[in-house]
Amino acid sequence: MSHVVIDLKASLKSFLRNKSTVFWTIAFPCVLILLFGAIFSQSSSKYDLYVQNQDLVAGKETYWSDALITALNTTNAPFNIKMVDSSINATDYAITNRLSSLLIISPGFDRNATIAYQTNGTGATANVTFVYDQSTSSAPIVGSILASIINQLNFGLSHGISYLNIQDLKIAPQRYGYIDFFLPGVIALTAMTTSIFTSVSISAQFRQNGVFHKLATTPLKRYEWILSRTVYNVLITYLGMSVMLILGVAVFGMKISVDAISLFLVAMASLMFTGLGMIIARFVKDPDGADAAANAITFPMMFLSGTFFPLSQMPLFLQAIAQVLPLTYVSDGLRASMIFGQSQTAFLNTGIITVLGIACILIGSWITKWEED
Amino acid sequence: MSNDNSIQVDGLTKCYGDLVAVNGISFTVNRGEIFAFLGPNGAGKTTTVEMLECLRKPTSGKAFVLGLDIAKDQMAIKKRTGVLPQDFYTYERLTVKETIQYYAGMFNSHPDVDGLIKLVDLEDKKNVLFKHLSGGLKQRLGIAVALVNDPEVIFLDEPSAGLDPKARHGVWHLIDGLHKQDKTVFLTTHYMEEAEILASRVGIIHNGNIVAMDTPQGLISEYGKRNLLILKQTSPRAVPNIEKLGIKAKYDGATGDVTAHLNHGVTVSEVLHSLSSSDIPFGELQLKRSSLEDVFLNLTGQTLGEEEGTL
Predict the structure, then answer these.
(1) Are strands B5-16 and B60-65 parallel, antiparallel or unpaired?
(2) Residue A172 and residue A163: Cα distance in Å, rounded?
(3) Chain segment B125-145, per-residue pLDDT in tens
């Protein structure tokens, strides 16, 4: 184990002496946060949400549709609910009046919700339609808050909790801005880029310039070295994360809860991307080529995993792609744990990333050779 | 194996697919000697030394380092040997002193770090980062690193390749010093001068086979029996004149020189006598002693400078 500590110290020393790496590891995410935060952050306290309830019986709101509107109207949710007449074409109305967010509760919502509730979700699905103007900055935020409220309702349903309990669920402990969405995404992004690029470039460079060769002649074991590099990547990611958190709190006044689950998720994400980097470096042996391969993997993930914009804003086929990208689960899990306080979602995503992380690091360690035989 | 052997190699073979890099070689290296493996690039030197360092698995054959089997006792061998790889490289942003401490840590050893720095003459560079060292200084640091565990056997793979003559002599001086500390040194090189100056014994390796093995002097007297005669600024007529004595001669039109390898029977005075009786003038006469270069040429028909690709 002392070998791990010695190698880790050497790696950290090297990191701190490499000014440009330090700068990019820490400054780049901060610039992103400041820039996007400043552009998209709003000072308005609540978001306007227009709601059209088409699910009426004899002119009266049905039980479930009323329940949903009540949930949206709770003091916790940051919405100014504005009702729209049920007889007009709501989509046209939204276009004409340049509304940014409109929720339509379709006829049959109550019936479907009741069936879903009785059949544990197998008999029917109760749909609402979210109409929004994607050119406005508030729509994605409203969309993600709506999604989280509906998720919580679903969670209640699927666990057979009666409707009345919904009021008690912590749907929205605070008001959310774009920065609340964005910052966990950038932390996930940093975990990915730091770990993949460090892992790829170190593996490729050490192989090319012969450091592996020399290390292989010492009693240092391969797994000790891999352990050291993994811990190193986690520490560097934590370093970047803490600077971002300080920025979020100091500049944007965010309320962030950094709990054990979010720290664990970041560590597992780092583990996963370290392993992924080792796998890339095994197959693309030239350092420049390995860097390009790492770019080819990280770049699409950056944009398709809901780092900058909520997934719900993307076309369906891109959303489908996002579902298979690991970064999606890191971002979602971090948002759930650090911002929205949704422990179920956080646990689920952390579980997925833990399994993937262990698999990636095991495969990466297994196929990484110091020497070609 | 006998206690006097530091390294014993028996029928060691390494194949890469159809290519036989090392072809069933056998040799022993005695305790305390400097043994040099001399051969061109691609001859199988590095493959052999890396099998002895437990970095590559032999295809067949056996080898023992300090009595330890390279197939079974890798960790024990690593702990008791020191290695300078070809083109030593390490963490770029560690200083000379930190690098030595790093590797000492890997061996759980506590060497006299300042003493090692002094030994390789890097005292004024001890706080300089590795990446700022010149090639010669990097190699010297590599030698210090190879000594952190006070090894009994030291493997030096092309220790002076790519260095300028001054740096090369510095490295030779160091290696000679190791010998005086009673350490066994296994050295690979494609510089015949390096082998001739440093080694107590030389193995000549060519296409994966050891073609000769002896002391440098033994090799020269056995295989290098042709001293080279050079006649400066002479006439092309010297060629037939010398060749009628029964030895080959060559005229170089650019320099006007004639060179001839002297066979046992033919002496310099015979050549001179023949030239003067035919009235052939020459500017200057040089006689070059046979070297390992000639030994290699005689044994393989190639010069050491010929590149054959690297394995």
Answers:
(1) antiparallel
(2) 17
(3) 999 999 999 988 999 999 999
| Other beta carbons within 10 Å of A124 | 16
Contact B106 A219 (CB under 8 A): yes
The whole model's pTM is what?
0.71
Of B86, B105, B129, the CB nearest to A6: B105
Report the C-alpha gap between B293 and B271 in whole angstroms: 24
Sheet of B284-288, strands arranged across: B249-252, B257-262, B227-232, B284-288
For chain B, list the strands marked E by DSSP.
Answer: 5-16, 19-30, 34-38, 60-65, 68-69, 81-84, 153-157, 184-189, 201-206, 209-214, 227-232, 249-252, 257-262, 284-288
Tell me if A192 is assigned to some domain: yes
Regarding an ipTM greater than 0.90, the answer is no
CATH number of B226-289: 3.30.70.100
Q: How many of the other CB atoms lie within 10 Å of CB of B151?
A: 21
Q: What is the pLDDT of residues A185-239, one digit of tens each?
A: 999 999 999 999 999 888 888 888 889 999 999 999 989 999 999 999 999 999 9
Structure tokens at B94: 């560690």
Alpha carbons B216 and A156: distance in angstroms, whole number: 88
Size of the A and B interface in Cβ pairs below 8 Å? 65
- Residue A99 lies in domain: 47-168
Residue in A209, A217, A371 closest to B78 by CB: A217
Spatial separation of the C-alpha atoms in residues B216 and B218, rounded to whole Å? 5
Q: For B5-222, which CATH class?
A: alpha beta
- The string of DSSP codes covering A321-333 is HHTT-HHHHHHHH
**pLDDT tens-digit map of A257-300:** 889 999 999 999 999 999 999 998 888 877 788 888 888 888 88
* Inter-chain touch B79–A219, beta carbons under 8 Å: yes
Q: Of all helices (H) and strands (E), which one includes residue A150? A: helix A138-158
Query: Residue A372: inside a domain, yes or no?
Result: no
